[in-house]
Structure formats: structure tokens, C-alpha cells
Amino acid sequence: MTADYKSTVFLPTTDFPMKAGLAEKEPGILARWEKLDIYARLRERSKGREQFVLHDGPPYANGHLHNGHALNKILKDVITRSQQMLGKDANYVPGWDCHGLPIEWKIEERYRAQGRRKDEIDVIEFRRECRQFAEEWIAIQREEFKRLGITGDWKRPYTTMAFAAEAQIVRELGKFLMAGDLYKGAKPVLWSVVEKTALADAEVEYQDHTSTTIWIRFPVIRTPVTALEGASVVIWTTTPWTMPGNRAVAYGPGMDYVVFRVTATAEGSLARAGERIAVCADLLDDVLKQAKITEIEEIAHVKGADLAGTVCRHPWAGKGYDFEVPLLSGLFVTTEQGTGFVHMAPGHGEDDYFLCLANGIAPPDTVDGDGLYMDHVPGFAGKHVFKVAPDIVAAMIDAGALLAQGSLTHSYPHSWRSKAPLIFRNTPQWFISMEKNGLRDKALAAIDETRWVPPQGRNRIRAMIESRPDWCVSRQRSWGVPIAIFVDKRDGLPLRDAAVTERIAQAFGAEGADAWFTGDPRRFLGAEHDPENFEPVRDIVEVWFDSGSTHAFVLEARDDLKWPADLYLEGSDQHRGWFHTSLLESCGTRGRAPYDAVLTHGFLLDEKGDKLSKSKGNAESPQKVVSSVGADIMRLWVVSSDYTGDIRFGPEILKQTTDTYRRLRNTLRFLLGALAGFDKAERIDDIAAMPELERWVLHRLSEIDVKVRGCCDAFSFHEMFQELHGFCAVDLSAFYLDIRKDALYCDGAGSLRRRACRTVIDTVFDCLVKWLAPFVCFTAEEAWLTRFPSEDDSVHFQSFPTVPGDWRDDALAERWTKVRRLRRVITGALEVARANKTIGASLQAAPVVHAPAELLNACAGLDMAEISITSDITLTDSADQPIPEGAYTLDEVAGVGVVVALAEGEKCQRCWEILPDVGTHAHEGLCGRCDEVVSSLTAG
């Protein structure tokens, strides 16, 4: 009967389970961190270190988290943790945006469900409900963020509705007021007729919208161009509702125009034979097609510049529109579509407004906040702009002005909250000037001084700043920080008094912004100003000014942070949002950006590349993912993705990530099992005494250390992940550990090879678990505590390992690159032999390897049988013995051929090698090495 030597083999032993059970295990780890107060202890341990501050862009407190939140917050946490482990004090203070339309809209929905109108509700009661709503969602979102493993100051987050924040927002706006940058003006702004307020660019989304299109004649009444006398210029518009606001027509000064006479038309045409019309020459064919004009006679060609001084009459002249309509030169006119003539309604378009303003034409008030024409608008009083198109068309037909009509589906601005289409509407608003004190130039200079990751972010935000109009900061809503200024009734100008602003700010700091609505103006105006002469502004500050000011009431206000921040990080849409307004606010008040670097990530898509949305049913919540597979899977998905572009997410991707995680976990498990019983006495500190294979692993650690630190600096975590994953899967599992299993299991406990291997495995574990800690924070903690059980320790208290410089050995690495190339061919040959059933296991083989001298020289002094995991091997110079026909080869390793032969001898019953000396020693069925080990164990 064969002896059983199983008990003499040093098999791996660990309490670190193969099955992760993350969904069940992670809450316990979170509770442990809570008990340890890991955040506070990190701050205490980090005192005196160089600070790294990632300033949190505040999410909105109005609903459960979605996967976009998870991507964003996990990426922030990975950066903060990695900077902390690089030896810095990386304090992360989370925050929330609390004011504004989304919350206000929710409270209004409640009222509508109760049959109540917002206008009937006391403003303080309304604001109190908004505040309570935000507080409830902050509490919910806080726990959802913490479940993702996000470490931060959750006990002291910042909120834009905190009294101190509201006070500082007043002070920040006061700085623009005192500098003369803040002014009241009437300009067309994007207006929601549903929400009855102006919207910021970041509150706008573009959706397909079908508009009625009309081609309208404007009869010429005076012109320096003879050919135009008695003719009509024809405009084209997709917004018929703006026609009551028309006051001019624009042309392109460098464009070519044609004047023609209609000579024939098709059935149904509204054109009249003999009439003369002027349009852009490049657009003539399309106009003729739309108007069903079949034949024309060209009368003249003129340059746009020649049209200066031409005046038309409004199509509805004699019906309340008895004013002249001049033709004005506009560089924005193009030949892309239309007629080359653009009707100008200065109350409903930005180009319209500025062109008319430059020519002394004031914008008329035609539409109120509900989207209804005002009572003084002839023919359309009380009608809604989005329902009036048929009436406009009928009125144009009645006036003989309609040349053609149609429809167009195009991208059109909508409110991201109500989803309703928007209008441009001229309204009195408060603006911050981009020019008066050089705000645009300051912002552009700050952009150039900021590091943008990825670099194309610089060009994107620069283009926005270069072309943006003055900043509209007022909103006609209730929930927010009031524009807490007084307007002098005598001249209409805002009161600029720093003492008044400070009194208001102090009241807000003590009582909140509600004080503006309840306080007597005298308490703010003081004895210096008569309340009878001043009127308080009742608009609120747009929420983007709130969040754009966070650097002032968070970074500057907290002793544990610093200004400017090292990094702002959000999605790429924030080039027009938080990055943008923070830049303007800070440049306007402090002359530079509030950040040194800005990182942007892409948007989430499903696995087909479609945008994730609840309505499509393709958006799973992070709560669902975490409760099924655990937060570490979500975190691993984030760091394995290239966030610089749009990122795909879905069940199959989650499954792939889970498989990747399982491989990483199994690597950690093997390392822990291999270290069972390892202590300092077994350690080999002199790396020169180690075998080359161990020195090669240490060299790889030195390479990875450089890569890890470089990736952390570049915020390139998918590269860092690929490096670590490749190290685990290829360098360790498929190579080093595969080779060294024999030494670990079967060498004597005191053998140099086994001691060196265990020393290196201990070092690998230390490096790997720390490098992975920012990524899979729960698993790294579990592995660390398995190795170093403790009541009050954590892997997150550690720093990244310090890798000695003498571990780097490029010559050794070059040699082992060649060894591994040769081994690839041998391994491939063994796989084929196993598939052909020539062998069962690789230890049954004794391959004959034909290779060039360059590769054979690299193997000199090495046990290639051990490296190839065979019982024997023969290396032959292919120059002396050509590769035999039928030998296994690989195209990518030229000049190498392998013939698999069977090893000679008997199978050792302990190590399973097939060797000639098996059975010749004291213990039955053992090779010499195993006999020696068993003898020592028996003797012990």
C-alpha cells in the first residue's frame, strides 16, 4: 500500500474565503469604520502633511442616487484615498445643492395635488417646506453614498442652504454690486412659461420639437436700390409667435441677393404672377420650391452691403403695426437655410436684441411670464405663444403676406425639469457684466493657468467663456438666496453700501435667508437711508451662483481645507455649469480660478451605447447593484473604465467586472494562504541572496510602483487598474506563483528557495493590498485584517509602500523577458500534448527545446524544468540541430521549436514529479528532495 504524504505538504491555509459575499459583508465593514471613526483618525494622523483638497461639486438633494452619482462619487473617493495613501492629508468634505427650481417644483406638485395654488401660500411656509424636503433627501443620499464606501466628513457636510452659506452668498454678490459689475437690464433670456422663470444654460436640454415654418413678405417702402422699389424681401422663421415682436430685418453684408419677378406658379402657390421678390441667391432654388414658383425672371443681383438704408413696412401695417421695419446688417446671417433675410424680434432673441440695440430700436414687451400675449398686443392679446401659430398664419394670409408655410423638426431648448419648450423673452433681470471690469479676460487667463484633464476640456470651456453674454443671475422664484439689494426709487439704481450688505449677511447667518422676507427694511438700511426711497428686490439668485460660490463658504471658511482647491471633478456637462460659474465667481471676486486642476468624466450609456434613462428602462440604480453584488464591484467597474469618454454600463459589463474581481480576490486569497505561519524569522532581507526569479518579482514591483504613482498624479486609474490586473493575472498567477507552487508546497520549511518565495509573497501582498485599497476598499480591508488581525487598525491608515531603488534591475528584467518568451512556446507545446492525451499533466513531460543561442544563453544557470513545470527538459541550440518537422512553434517567437517527450522514472508520491531516483530513498515512493523533507519532519 502506497504511503500517504499529504500531511507533509505545506498546503495554503487562510480564513479569507473564496466566496466574497460582498453584499452581506460590506455593511459590517462600514459599521466597523463607523465605530473606529476612521475619518477623524485619518485627519489626526495626517496633521502636518501636505494637503490635497478635492472640492466636492454638490449633487442636488431631491431623489435617490443614480449610477451617474455612483460613478462621480466613487471616482472622487478613489482620488482622495490614493492621495491620502501617497502620504498627503486628503480631506474630503461632501456637499449638497439645496436651492432652486427642482425642489420648488416638487413642493408645487404637492400643492397642485391638494388643489392649492402656490400664490396662495405664505412665502415663509413655502420655503420651510422646501428646506425640509432638501433635509430629508440629504439624509437619504448620505447613507447611499456611504454604502458605496465613500469616506468623508459626513458629520459636517456643507449645504448651500446652511445659514452661513446663505450669508456668504450675499457677501459674494455684494462684491459684484460694489464693483459695479451687477446691474439691472432687460434682455432676452431663456424663459420657462411653465415654471415662470428664467433658466440658466445648465438648466436647459435640447430635444426634437416640430415647429411651424413660414415665409413672409415684407414690402419695401424705401430703398437706395432701384431694383428693390416695389418689391418685397422675404423672411423665413421657425417661430411664428415672434412676429408681433418684429421690429427689423437682418441681411448678410457679404452675401449675394437676387431680385426676381414671378412669371409662373404651380397649383396652390401663394405667389402672385408679376410680383417682385428679393432673397439670397444661394437659397433661391429652395425658396422657389417651397413657394411653388415654377418660372421667374431675374431682375438684378445685389450685394448685401448695398441694402443699407432699405426700409420695409410690417406685414400687418394698418392693423396696429404701423411702424417702419428697417433692414440692418447682421454678421450672424448665413446661407444654411431660409431666405438670407432674418426677421428681428429684439424681445425674443439674443442676436435680435443686440442688433436692434446697436441701431436704437428698443425691444417691445409682447409676452408675459405665462407665455400669453399682453393686452396691448394688437390681434393676439391673451393668446398663448405655443398655440398661436394657426392664428399667425391666418393673419398673414389675410394680409397677403404669407408666401409659403411648412413644418420643421429640429433641436429646440426645453426645461430639463418640466420638459416643456422654452422661449426667449425680454424681461428685467439682474446681470453680472463680462466686460465692465474685465471678467471675461480674467476668466480666459485663469483657464490657461489651470490643468485640464483630459486636456480638451480647456478648449471647450474657453470657447464658452469667449462667446458667453453677461451672466443673468436673477430668478423669479421663491426657494433660494434672495438678491438682497435695494433699488433707489428715485433713479432706479441699486444701493451700493457695503455696510448694508454686511448687515444683511449677518442677519442671514443668524436666521437664514428667510430674514429678507420677514425683516423690516430699516434693520438693513440703517439710519443712513430712508426706507421710503428704497425698494427691496424680491428675485432670488440663480442656483449656479450658489454653487459657484461654494469655494468661498467651504474652502475658505474651513480650517481643515484650503483655497484654491487642488481639484474640481464633475461630468463634462459642468464646463457650462459648476466649473463655469465657479470660475466666473472666483475670477470676479478674487482674480483667479478657485481650482488648480479640473477633471471631467463622460456620461453613462447602456451596453448598446444609448443614454441611460429610467423611461427607457435601461438605468439600474446603484442601490440595486450594491445589494446584489456589492459596492466593490461598482468601484472596480469605475476604475476599470476610461472615464475620459462616455462609459457603458449594464448587466453583461457588471458580470465581466465580477469575473475580474473574482480573479483579483483569488490572487489575494492565494497570497494569504501561502503566508500561513510566516514570521520575521523566516524572512530573507538580503535580496542578493535570493534566486533570480524572486529578484525579478521585486523588479516588477519597482516598475509598478512608478506606474502607480504616475497614474495617481495623472488620475488615470484605468491604466493603474490594467497594470495591477495584469500583474495579478499574468505575472503572478500564470507565471511566478504557478512556478513556485512546487517550492511552497514541497520544499523544506527552512529551504532558501521557499523562504525567499515567502518573503517575496509577503512583500507582494503588502504592495498589492495597499495599491488596491483605493479601488476595492472593502476587500482590501478584509484581506488586511485577515493578515493582521486588529481591533483598531485599517489598511486605510497605511501609505503606499516605499519600494527600494535597488529592487530595480533592468538587465535582469531583459533576461527574464527572453526566458518568458521561450517558456511561452514550451507551455503551448504542453497544452497541445495534453489536448492530444500524450500527457495528462505537465510534470509527465520532458520536452526537447530547440532554440537560438540568444534565448538559450538567457536561460543559463536556470532550472528550466522547474520554470516550465516539467520533470525534465533538454535545451538544444537550433543552429546545431535544426527544428524537427512536426515540432510545436509560435510565429511570434521565431526560431523556437518544442517536441514533447515523456519524462523517465517514477512519479514521486509527494511532489508528483517523475524522476529516475524515485523509490531509491528511505521513504517509499519519494524523490530525494521529498525524502529529505519528510525525514526532517519525522525527526522533528
How many helix segments? Answer: 28
Largest sheet: 10 strands, mixed
Helix content: 25-40%
CATH fold-level topology of the largest domain: Rossmann fold
Number of domains: 4
Approximate strand percentage:
15-25%
Subcellular location: Cytoplasm
Subunit structure: Monomer.
EC number: 6.1.1.5
Motif ('KMSKS' region): 611-615
Report what the structure shows.
There is one protein chain. The chain is of the alpha/beta class and 940 residues long. The longest helix is centred in the last third of the chain and has 30 residues, at 717-746. α10 crosses α17 (578-590). Strands 8, 9, 10, 11, 12, 13, 14, 15, 16 and 17 form a ten-stranded mixed beta sheet that branches. Strands 2-25-26-19 form a four-stranded parallel beta sheet, with helices on both faces. The protein contains 28 helices and 34 strands. It folds into four domains: 48-181 and 433-601, Rossmann fold (3-Layer(aba) Sandwich), CATH 3.40.50; 208-418, Isoleucyl-tRNA Synthetase, domain 2 (Alpha-Beta Complex), CATH 3.90.740.10; 648-808, Isoleucyl-tRNA Synthetase, Domain 1 (Orthogonal Bundle), CATH 1.10.730.20; 818-904, 2-Layer Sandwich (hypothetical protein PF0899 fold), CATH 3.30.2320.20.
